[in-house]
């Protein structure tokens, strides 16, 4: 499962094995080994791969059928802001995973949930950006 999904996400992001390897600080042969099932990534590498491929570890491992990526929520045009740190991205993933999207006690359809989460994504990144700007600088 991992090897297929890893290759699928890599191709969806238009990365070569070499490009993906560079983004996760690995060798091309390492990525090739993951995609052929010859070896498996450790937890840290799995997390890095999920971050770079804008998906979840659960999706890569086959525990989720939803490859929902951080930049594909809503209409698919949103992107992770340039100012976002890896911690910000992890915070955002945690934020999304904590959301139970319902209306009047009834769960929303996948399409409606994606739309609502898209709006929430925009609000989340706006709040992060304002927070980064409003931190007082240390003046002597």
From TrEMBL:
Q: Which InterPro entries match?
A: Cro/C1-type_HTH, Lambda_DNA-bd_dom_sf
Which protein is depicted?
DNA-binding XRE family transcriptional regulator
Check the record and name the Pfam families matching this protein.
HTH_3 (PF01381)
Query: Does this entry carry the keyword DNA-binding?
Result: yes
Q: Does the keyword Transferase apply?
A: no
Q: Which organism is it from?
A: Paenibacillus taihuensis
Keywords in alphabetical order, please: DNA-binding
**Record domain HTH cro/C1-type: where:** 6-60
> What Gene3D superfamilies does the annotation carry?
lambda repressor-like DNA-binding domains
Q: Name one GO molecular function term.
A: DNA binding
């Amino acid at each position: 499962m991992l090897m297929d999904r890893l290759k699928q996400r890599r191709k969806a992001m238009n990365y070569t094995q070499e490009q993906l390897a560079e983004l996760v600080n690995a060798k091309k042969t390492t990525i090739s080994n993951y995609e052929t099932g010859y070896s498996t990534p450790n937890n840290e590498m799995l997390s890095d791969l999920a971050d770079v491929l804008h998906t979840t570890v659960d999706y890569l491992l086959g525990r989720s059928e939803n490859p929902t990526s951080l930049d594909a929520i809503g209409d698919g045009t949103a992107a992770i802001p340039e100012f976002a740190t890896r911690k910000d991205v992890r915070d955002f993933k945690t934020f999304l995973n904590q959301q139970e999207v319902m209306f009047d006690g009834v769960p929303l359809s996948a399409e409606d949930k994606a739309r609502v989460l898209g709006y929430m994504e925009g609000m989340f990144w706006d709040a992060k950006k304002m927070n980064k700007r409003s931190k007082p600088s240390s003046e002597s």
